């Protein structure tokens, strides 16, 4: 920020944006275009302001905002400049640039030379992410516009609008990148926030979020273009639903009047984009704060309010848009805390990582025992086949079985399908092998030797860009007399560990004979986790929980 005059200018600069998580994890880079305009108070600035008496020494303010709000802010800056510092208004020259909110948060947090004096993100949730280690930027004006989150899709996809969870679970949600877009992040937060009203269980939420994170996280380029998603959702018979801001939907409707889309607000309520003005100046924060107040005043004039409404934005109290556009009155969900935001984004980052796993299935004699109408083996195979649907094609998975003395050189394990990407062929090979498995009469459970060998195998094929795990399914405890003791097995597993190349055991015990202590010890030695399903109906939730603990 400084004192000088310059002409009205427009320029383009290419920057490279990077995903930002709650802990500053950089995952992917995107290209972004910055469009900049300056509005000064000096005389004869290209005739753009229509001439008039100017203040002699305007304060220069660099303002960055989210692209959709650039035009309203440019209009406010132009109006403010035209007053030339009269009647107590500050003498300002404001340069307005646009970029995604996550990118500006990164610029500020990393001390970039591109750091603005003022920043108008599309949501206050990004403010904490702009902490440069010295101070978190301060919010000068809580909001200059709002836009509630809606879910957009074809009418047939909204038979049940009772909650975010139900709508998304019944359709194919196309979620904007939660780590780099506000609508994506607010969607995840809305699913969590509405639980105060729906009492949805952890398992119900996980059954939606885990496969969604796996599918979207495996994409080479996550969704960031909401208009393109609206176009896909509008195709005949499409089951795609798009969580988005009301403003983006209203603008799409104007540009595509033939579209057969509707926007709904789930009955539980919604969260909203709040567009605060944030002081990010390196120095003279007081002057930047004064400029923020002046700009906010301009944005609240009657003429500015009309332009704001035409652009699809609501006022700061979420009053409905004019002309019957949008979704009408809004029922608000509880605003998430900063801790909830951090936890949600961290969980998404973890869940969306690719998978490199070896599934190891117990085929010992006890797997022939019936639980109701089905054997433990049948229930295990059903759970494993169902679990395949949670993994995207880019995930890598292989298959072993184990009992005692069933492999080469009387090994307790038998490799069936090598670890490979889950192409249609790989899925078919795994399912085919699973369906022909039968319990071995009088076969023992060589649990310890198998666990050690499986971890060694995954380590030999370690994939640095994925979560490397052994998915160990068993119904009992180790009963191989020639195997190491539990203490020796734990020590052997610990000896294999490399903190820079972790391979974790996720142990899934089934039935009343599964030894929870043994499984916990084996998994714990690798930094993994163990779960026991005492009843067949618990298997699906146990599998979901196992994926979350990767």
Quick structural overview:
This protein is 34% helix and 21% strand.
Which short descriptors sum up this protein?
elongated; alpha/beta; 8-stranded mixed β-sheet; 17 helices; 550 residues
Question: What topology does this entry show?
Answer:
Elements: E1 2-3, E2 10-18, E3 29-39, E4 59-65, H1 70-82, E5 92-98, H2 101-109, E6 118-120, E7 138-141, E8 147-154, H3 164-169, E9 172-173, H4 182-193, H5 195-198, H6 202-217, H7 226-233, E10 240-245, H8 246-255, E11 261-264, E12 272-273, E13 277-279, H9 285-299, H10 302-310, H11 338-351, E14 354-362, E15 370-371, E16 374-375, H12 376-388, E17 396-402, E18 413-421, H13 424-435, H14 447-460, E19 466-474, H15 486-496, E20 504-510, H16 516-524, E21 529-533, H17 539-548
Parallel strand pairs: 4-5, 4-6, 9-10, 14-17, 14-19, 19-20, 20-21
Antiparallel strand pairs: 1-4, 2-3, 3-5, 6-13, 7-13, 8-10, 8-11, 8-12, 15-16, 17-18
Helix pairs in contact: 1-9, 6-17, 12-13, 12-17, 14-15
């Amino acid at each position: 920020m400084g004192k000088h005059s310059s002409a009205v200018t427009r320029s383009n600069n290419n920057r490279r944006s990077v995903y930002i998580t709650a802990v500053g994890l950089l995952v992917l880079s995107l290209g972004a275009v910055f469009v900049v305009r300056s509005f000064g108070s000096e005389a004869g600035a290209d005739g753009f302001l229509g001439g008039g008496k100017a203040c002699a020494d305007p304060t220069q303010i660099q303002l960055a905002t989210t692209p959709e709000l650039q035009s309203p802010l440019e209009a406010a800056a132009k109006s403010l400049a035209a007053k030339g510092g009269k009647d107590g208004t500050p003498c300002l020259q404001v340069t307005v640039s646009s970029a995604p909110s996550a990118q500006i948060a990164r610029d500020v947090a990393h001390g970039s030379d591109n750091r603005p004096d003022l920043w108008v993100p599309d949501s206050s949730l990004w403010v904490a992410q702009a902490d440069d280690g010295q101070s978190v930027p301060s919010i000068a004006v809580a909001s200059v516009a709002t836009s509630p989150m809606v879910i957009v899709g074809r009418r047939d996809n909204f038979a049940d609008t009772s909650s975010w969870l139900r709508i998304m679970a019944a359709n194919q949600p196309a979620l904007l990148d939660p780590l780099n877009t506000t609508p994506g992040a607010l969607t995840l937060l809305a699913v969590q926030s509405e639980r105060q009203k729906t009492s949805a269980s952890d398992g119900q939420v996980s059954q939606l979020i885990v496969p969604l994170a796996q599918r979207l996280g495996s994409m080479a380029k996550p969704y960031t273009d909401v208009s393109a998603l609206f176009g896909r959702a509008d195709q005949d018979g499409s089951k795609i639903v798009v969580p988005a801001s009301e403003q983006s939907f209203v603008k799409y409707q104007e540009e595509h009047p033939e579209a057969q889309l509707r926007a709904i607000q789930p009955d539980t309520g919604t969260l909203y984009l709040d567009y605060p003005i944030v002081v990010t100046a390196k120095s003279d924060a007081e002057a930047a704060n004064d400029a923020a107040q002046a700009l906010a005043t301009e944005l609240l004039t009657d003429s500015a309010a009309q332009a704001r409404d035409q652009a699809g934005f609501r006022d700061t109290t979420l009053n409905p848009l004019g002309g019957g556009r949008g979704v009408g009155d809004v029922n608000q969900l509880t605003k998430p805390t900063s801790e909830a935001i951090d936890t949600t984004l961290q969980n998404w980052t973890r869940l969306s990582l690719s998978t490199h796993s070896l599934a190891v299935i117990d085929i010992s004699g006890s797997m022939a025992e019936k639980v109701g109408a089905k054997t433990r083996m049948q229930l295990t195979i059903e759970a494993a086949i169902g679990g395949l649907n949670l993994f995207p094609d880019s995930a890598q998975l292989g298959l072993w079985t184990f009992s005692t003395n069933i492999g080469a050189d009387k090994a307790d394990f038998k490799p069936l399908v090598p670890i490979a990407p889950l192409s249609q062929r790989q899925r078919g090979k795994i399912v085919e092998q699973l369906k022909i498995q039968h319990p071995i009469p009088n076969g023992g459970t060589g649990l310890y030797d198998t666990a050690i060998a499986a971890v060694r195998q995954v380590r030999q094929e370690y994939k640095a860009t994925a979560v490397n795990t052994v998915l160990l399914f068993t119904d009992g405890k180790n009963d191989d007399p020639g195997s190491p003791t539990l203490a020796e097995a734990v020590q052997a597993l610990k000896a294999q560990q490399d903190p820079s190349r972790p391979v974790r055991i996720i142990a899934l015990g089934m039935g009343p004979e599964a030894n929870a202590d043994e499984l916990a010890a084996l998994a714990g030695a690798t930094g993994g986790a163990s779960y026991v399903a005492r009843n067949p109906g618990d298997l699906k939730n146990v599998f979901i929980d196992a994926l979350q603990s990767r």
